Amino acid sequence: MGTNKEILFVDGISKIFGKAGSAQSVVALDNISFSLTPGANSILGPNGAGKSTLIKILLGFLKTDNGTAQVLGYDIFKEGKKIREIVGYMPETHTLIPGVNAIKQVSLLGRIAGLPKSEAMQRAHETLQYVGLDEARYRKVDEFSTGMLQRLKLAQSIVNDPELVILDEPTNGLDPKGRLDMIALIREISNDHAINIIVSSHLLPDVEATCDYATILNLGKVVAQGGITELTGQEAKSQEQRLMNVRIKGNMNDFLVGLKDNGLAFQVVEKIIQIPFLEDDIAQRILKIAYKTKVQIRSISPRKAILEDVFVHKIENVQEIREENTIFDGSNMAITASELENLIPFVNPEEEKGPLVRIEDKYVRKKDFDKAVKKLQKKIKKNQGESEK
Amino acid sequence: MSVFDRSYRRYTGDLKGRWSRIWAIATSTFRVQFSGKKIIFLLILCNLPVISFTLMITFMTIFSPAMVTSFILEIFGTVDVAMYTVINFTFNPGLIFLPIVFICALNAGTIANDKKHNSLALYMAKPIERIDYITGKAISIYMVSSFVTLIPWLVFMIAFTLLMGISGAQFTDTLWVYLSTAASALIVILFLGSIVLMFSAMSSQSVLAGILSIMILFLPSLITGVIASVPGLNVDWLNYFSISALLTAAIHVIFGLPDFDTFSDFGFFESNIRGSIAIIVVLGIIVTTILLTINQLYKEEIH
């Protein structure tokens, strides 16, 4: 059960599109469980990770195959209407109500949310002003640009003063200025008005700029969760090669030769020398080399891990795990998809009639798959027996 | 607080109930359907028969008040039959296509346009159920449809009552026409509106929904008309497939046939099918189309 302190509590939710077990079925969410605390949260993941599916389930647009969830303490199956009363939603897709102007669209959606007519109109004016669409209030929404539509969608999502706003890819299709404005607005809504937000995005800089917490989804599973500072800190520690960023003034070549002579690897990225952070006294060693080669150190600092590092790292991990688990049912046998291709031929699912097994984005016949697994298991047992002897 | 301040205000008031939300959808959709100058032209065209009768009675009353009474009584016998005849005349198979085209043209985009522009995601993210959305849209369609049925008929009858100076016991005698007209209008509105609503829910192209609605409402009548015109064929039962025949027969059940034969040569009140069966078929079609619409929209995926 979720607690009162959680804005979202997800417990074992699964969603499969298509008939379960069939070749065409897609596992969008795979028994995911997590919770979010009040504040600015994000759900991150590449396209197809299951972010939008999860949001649609939370809002009651889609049914789940398994599991349950609570939004602001309300059960998504029993109290969907109550949830939608206190949650604002900014959809990802290009959505508008045709034939009306901006003020009418926002006030209508305010009325549908339960606001009295006059209050809905008043708040529609205010929210359109707030998102910067005051000049375009009386223009037909059919004529709006993508940027204006994004703002309009944000306005309608906050018109009824929700406790939580779910923003699905809020910066999609925006130009750089529009993107920065949208980020500032989202940040303001969260910080200044104490409205909880959940930003679903695949654009990591936007999430870093707007949110404090991130839940990373990939292939329908939660692969990481926590505060963004915490996640990036963990990432920095877990990176095999942490880097020191060094800026110098003087002869770059001499300094690089000095590094090489002292057994230090490096790479130069836009005049910044990145040196692997192998030991604690690395800074001392760099300073000594600089002294010897007569260059001036302008700055020396460890490279800060960004959310992108966490994202890429976590996604890579889950693909490996998923592959092992899917193919060998947790037997800890690591094998890549390309190695597998030598054992089992990949097939086109549209041409096959029999049962198939999906491995990442490829398919193999189930009978071939079962044969290969048995063969490999025998081989491993044999190898283990020989090594024990 | 001024509406021109750029700030965010918290809302602490009460929220309105379900019917207020449904009504908001209905009125908003109605305004969108009724916007545009062409609508007025179309509205006048579709109501031309009723407008003509109303104007005729008005001018006759102004310029020759004595003649109008004798004219009405001579031809129709009583004023209620006169009112009934005019309204029933608009169900003439040749005239019924006007409201059909109007209702299809204006309402075909009611749900189809929302599907096309993904508006369902906006509506359904608010605290309403899909059935509330469907109800709101249906009310809007029925409201639009009433502008070519109930409203012009009532306007005609009120004008007729006032111009003829009908009052007292004579007015009481005509009340049945008002009630029957309201019941007939309801049948026509529900029948035509529900068919258009269904096609609008099934397509995301308003033009396609409109064409399909018109075809379904016209083609059977046309085909049955052609077959029935073949000499020697006794195919009266085919009229159960004719929309105009069905509606006319159903309305005759509500009104009852007038006890006079002045217009019998024109065949206005002729019906080759049984009214009771017609009304069951009409009600059956209304219920089926509404259920299909609900089913369609509950299946609809929200993007």
Q: State the CATH topology of the largest domain in chain A.
A: Rossmann fold
Largest sheet of chain A: 6 strands, mixed
Strands side by side in the biggest sheet of chain A: 6-7-8-3-9-10
Number of helices, where a helix is a run of at least 4 consecutive DSSP H or I residues of chain A: 13
Rg over CA atoms of chain A = 26 Å
**Largest sheet: number of strands, sense, barrel closure of chain B:** none
What structural class do you assign from the helix and strand content of chain B? mainly alpha
Tell me, what's the shape of chain A? Answer: flat
Q: Which word captures the global form of chain B?
A: globular
| Overall tally of structural domains of chain B | 1
CATH superfamily of the largest domain in chain A: P-loop containing nucleotide triphosphate hydrolases
**Count of beta strands of chain A:** 17
The poorly predicted ranges of chain B are none
Roughly what is the average pLDDT of chain A, rounded to an integer? 81
**N→C terminal distance of chain B:** 37 Å
Biggest interface: A-B, 49 and 41 residues
For the CA atoms, what is the radius of gyration of chain B? Answer: 22 Å
Low-confidence stretches of chain A: 319-334
Oligomer: heterodimer
